[in-house]
């Protein structure tokens, strides 16, 4: 054990004893926090992983309230949603570049959705997307109520 570490531990022990003698808890908490970071290095925060699991679960409960989903199935659904959204983003960017526009609008997203998804699934996705965009614009003050063209 290094001398610096031993000194810090002794100092924290003295602080704890002094806090107990006073009957206060705040000094004990402070001393404990210095003990946890004795070596001077900050604890690394775990990187948050983005996942659509919560949203997939909410939709599942809206459609089938009494049905559950396994961890493997959730991982597959999460991967599927991430893949589809990635494809939509890439294709919408390509489409906006081809049309010499710098902004990807709801119209490009709608067009790409029609291209990527087959038949009936595309129609449902476009109608749900249109509904979501109109709901969002109506909730925002100052934005005109505008729905994308179908």
TrEMBL record:
Query: Among its keywords, does the record have Magnesium?
Result: no
Q: Where in the cell is it found?
A: Chromosome; Nucleus
Q: Where is the composition biased (Low complexity)?
A: 1-26
| GO MF annotation list | DNA binding; protein heterodimerization activity; structural constituent of chromatin
Record-annotated Core Histone H2A/H2B/H3 domain positions: 37-115
Specify where the region named Disordered lies, as residue ranges: 1-44, 128-150
Q: Which PROSITE patterns match?
A: HISTONE_H2B (PS00357)
Keywords assigned by UniProt, alphabetized: Chromosome, DNA-binding, Isopeptide bond, Nucleosome core, Nucleus, Ubl conjugation
Q: Which domain of life is it from?
A: Eukaryota
What cellular component terms from Gene Ontology apply here? nucleosome; nucleus
Q: What is its main location?
A: nucleus
Under the heading InterPro entries, the entry gives: H2A/H2B/H3 (IPR007125), Histone-fold (IPR009072), Histone_H2B (IPR000558), HISTONE_H2B_site (IPR055333)
Record-linked Gene3D superfamilies: Histone, subunit A
Quaternary structure (record): The nucleosome is a histone octamer containing two molecules each of H2A, H2B, H3 and H4 assembled in one H3-H4 heterotetramer and two H2A-H2B heterodimers. The octamer wraps approximately 147 bp of DNA.
Q: Which PANTHER family does this UniProt record tie to the protein?
A: HISTONE H2B (PTHR23428)
The record's similarity note reads: Belongs to the histone H2B family.
Give the protein's function: Core component of nucleosome. Nucleosomes wrap and compact DNA into chromatin, limiting DNA accessibility to the cellular machineries which require DNA as a template. Histones thereby play a central role in transcription regulation, DNA repair, DNA replication and chromosomal stability. DNA accessibility is regulated via a complex set of post-translational modifications of histones, also called histone code, and nucleosome remodeling.
Full protein name: Histone H2B
Q: Which organism is it from?
A: Rhipicephalus appendiculatus
């Amino acid at each position: 054990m290094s001398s610096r570490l031993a000194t810090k531990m002794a100092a924290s022990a003295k602080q704890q004893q002094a806090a107990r003698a006073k009957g206060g808890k705040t000094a004990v908490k402070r001393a404990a926090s210095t003990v946890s970071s004795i070596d001077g290095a900050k604890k690394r925060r775990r990187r948050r992983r983005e996942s659509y699991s919560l949203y997939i679960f909410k939709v599942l409960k809206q459609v089938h309230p009494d049905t559950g989903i396994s961890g493997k199935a959730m991982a597959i659904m999460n991967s599927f949603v991430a893949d589809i959204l990635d494809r939509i983003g890439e294709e919408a960017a390509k489409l906006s570049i081809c049309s010499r526009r710098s902004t990807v609008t709801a119209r490009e997203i709608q067009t790409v959705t029609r291209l990527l998804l087959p038949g009936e699934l595309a129609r449902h996705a476009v109608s749900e997307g249109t509904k979501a965009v109109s709901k969002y614009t109506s909730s925002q003050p100052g934005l005109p109520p505008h729905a994308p063209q179908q």
